[in-house]
Amino acid sequence: KAGVTQTPRYLIKTRGQQVTLSCSPISGHRSVSWYQQTPGQGLQFLFEYFSETQRNKGNFPGRFSGRQFSNSRSEMNVSTLELGDSALYLCASSLNPGTNYGYTFGSGTRLTVV
Amino acid sequence: AQKITQTQPGMFVQEKEAVTLDCTYDTSDPSYGLFWYKQPSSGEMIFLIYQGSYDQQNATEGRYSLNFQKARKSANLVISASQLGDSAMYFCAMREPNDYKLSFGAGTTVTVRA
């Protein structure tokens, strides 16, 4: 059974550019969420999608956006990149929105903004 | 307010010994789920163990067990018979109903010595 696939694994971008990260969940999982991990702030929730609807959004500026497609694949976009956006971006998928279902994470996309 | 608190930034443990990682949580909801994840240097978050708030028994998964003390709002992870491959960052996380996200603690770095 394929796990959660995130592409690309590594990315280097310049300040001011935009970037799109992709996440393919485990087959059958309809919930996809995104997290940003930095040494200073730790793991912070970005947003969660279920059946193409955003159900929750973290405290991030509007430069961070996402979407989910009908096949449950998700993308997140960061526009006008800042140096502080350098981070490991983790995607996680879940079978069911209930509290007793955990999330399976991908290997992450490591974004470096120069 | 912090929902998950992990007070141990780093720990050293001798191979084959047990180690306990502390986690306290804060919620007013009676229904919630508690998770532990392992993050090796590669970055991927690996699910270890889950404890539901209504579960009567402490969760166990192989060498991992969860010491769940509901009244004290603590969910400590115990790793028995530590192995060199257990060296990683460990995160405690909580999911509350209708929140559609995991709230993570700051993590504890475990280093297993031969």
Model description:
The complex is a heterodimer of chains A (114) and B (114). Chain A has 114 residues and is an all-beta fold. Chain A contains no helices and 11 strands. In chain A, strands 2, 4, 5, 6, 9, 10 and 11 form a 7-stranded mixed beta sheet that branches. In chain A, strands 1-3-8-7 form a 4-stranded antiparallel beta sheet, with no helix packed on it. In chain A, a hairpin with a 2-residue loop joins strand 5 (42-50) and strand 6 (53-57). Chain A is globular. Chain A starts with a strand and ends with a strand. The mean pLDDT of chain A is 93. In chain B, the strands form 3 sheets. In chain B, strands 2, 5, 6, 10, 11 and 12 form a 6-stranded mixed beta sheet that branches. A 4-stranded antiparallel beta sheet of chain B has the order 3-9-8-7, with no helix packed on it. A two-stranded antiparallel ribbon of chain B has the order 1-4. The mean pLDDT of chain B is 94. Chain B is globular and about 45 Å long. Chain B is an all-beta fold and 114 residues long. In chain B, 0% of the residues lie in helices and 49% in strands. Classes of the chains: A mainly beta (114), B mainly beta (114). At the A-B interface, strand 4, strand 5, strand 9 and strand 10 of A face strand 5, strand 6 and strand 11 of B.
